[in-house]
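input
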Amino acid sequence: MPCFSTIKTKLTDGARLIDALRSLGFNPEKRAYGDVIRGTDKRGLGITFEKAGGTYSARGETQYLAAISRKYAELGVREWAKRKGYSIGIGGNLEEDAPRAMTLINRREG
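output
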């Protein structure tokens, strides 16, 4: 991955989407019908993701979509980095609606 890469996110992995929702404080629920995941916040507001054509699309309380997409991407980068032997340092503003800088650190030997 070159320096200063930008990641474009497509929500395709249901398990990672559920992990992203959970880590942001949502109560995720995979619906029994179709490929539908619903996340409900502490106030009872929800966002629903439905998979069609290989990617999830969102409806409902979509003001959460940016934060969920960032967390989903972060989890994907962490998973990729771990498989490749990198550790990760996080810098910059860590508020959920701010851009996030992640530094991959190569600690592999020879």
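quick obs: Residues 93-98 have pLDDT under 50 and may be disordered.
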